[in-house]
Amino acid sequence: MFNVTIINAKGSLKKIAILIITLSLLFILIKFVKKIKTEDILKINISDKLIRCLDIEIPSIKNIYKSLENSSENEKNDELDILVGKILGVELAKIKENKNVENENQEKIDNSNDVENQNIETEKNDTEPDMENQNINVENIIETSQTTEVTQNPITESFNTEINGVKIKNETSFVVNSETIMGNELDINRNNILIFHTHTCESYTPSDKYLYQQTGNFRTTDLNYTVSRVGDELTNYLLNFGFNVKHDKTYHDYPAYSGSYNRSLKTVENALKTNPSDIIIDLHRDAIGSKSNYDPSVKIGEDVSAKMMFVIGTNGGGLNHPNWQKNLKFAIEVQQKANEMYPGLFKPIILRNSRYNQHLGKAACIIEVGATGNTLEQCLNSMKYLSKIFEQVLKEQ
């Protein structure tokens, strides 16, 4: 027997021809590329295309460039340099402010991504406080306590200004004194109060009574254990004192921490459309770097209560903020009364360059309740006394 191999000559010749043509084209391309010099590439003039692109994106550039058509080349360059400088100045100012807003109190979070994998409802706009806490007898709240007891691991509370006995840590370049801040009367609506949380998921050290599963570093998406629960407590007390209170519990730091203040800005703006308020409280939990056991507190009667702190923003970051001096005046008046009633309950006020959305009210503020080392019980106790302070301050206005 013979093995016979049949060769398809026609098909083979076709493949060989294609291969030869491909190699020839490749050889020609290589020779052409070698002839192109680097300086020839760099001589390509893209200025006209760039200008056309800028004309579309920023119409004002087109108008200015057209007005310079009859000018000399040097004049054109000078004018365009000034224009570009102005544009960059505006954009850099925006970047600086965004950085201030997003980096303020960086110690508040060690890992903002820990909550991103949690499967929960992303918004919770409950404005009604927990029903079980509404039966509160405000008549039994101690009105004054001259004995306070500080925890064993305090961090030095520094300040550089003092007004009417209220200590202030001024981190801005503004001059703050009694004449500049306390001179004008604070004309505000005393009845309507808005409470919200830019960092809704901030939580505290778990305790036997409030044991919870953390979904981040001192953070949880379960609002029964966060500053939102503290906001419920404050709302309940204020309602019993006769105030009109709206408590918004929208998530602003979930599923992403970055951009929290931009999201809470929209929440407050929408809330003010239906519930106008001068007193706007952004309730937070403080955190001091790696001091996870930092639990500043005082003892009022039999209650161990977490210490609190006002954070007031200004227009030092470049954003319009006509209300910052009024906001500071309000915080000073509240803290002055707190010093009379419950000495040591408040830490020094912090005054910063960032605006923190406080331009929306004449008595807007951040109040940081406790720190990572405090328990939820201690923070709930603080709301009892904070509400009493508000009742005293606002009825005196």
Overview of this protein structure:
With 397 residues, the chain is an alpha/beta fold. The protein has 2 domains: 47-101; 112-396, Zn-dependent exopeptidases (Aminopeptidase). Helix content is 39%, strand content 12%. The protein has 10 helices and 10 strands. An 8-stranded mixed beta sheet has the order 1-2-9-8-10-5-3-4, sandwiched between helices. Helix 9 links the parallel strand 8 and strand 9. Helix 3 packs across helix 4 (59-67). The longest helix is centred in the N-terminal third of the chain and has 31 residues, at 73-103. It is elongated and about 105 Å long.
The CATH architecture of the largest domain comes to: 3-Layer(aba) Sandwich
Oligomeric composition of the shown chains: single chain
Secondary structural class: alpha/beta
* Approximate shape: elongated
Please provide the count of β strands: 10
The average pLDDT is: 78
H-E string: HHHHHEEHEHEHEEEEHEEH
Helix content estimate: 25-40%
Radius of gyration: 32 Å
What is the count of distinct domains? 2
- What is the C-level CATH assignment of the largest domain? Alpha Beta
**What is the fold-level CATH name, i.e. the topology of the largest domain?**
Aminopeptidase
- Strand portion: 5-15%
Largest sheet: 8 strands, mixed
Structural key phrases:
10 strands; alpha/beta; Aminopeptidase; 397 residues; 10 helices; elongated; 2 domains; eight-stranded mixed β-sheet; two-stranded antiparallel ribbon
Brief description of this entry?
With 397 residues, the protein is of the alpha/beta class. Helices cover 39% and strands 12% of the residues.
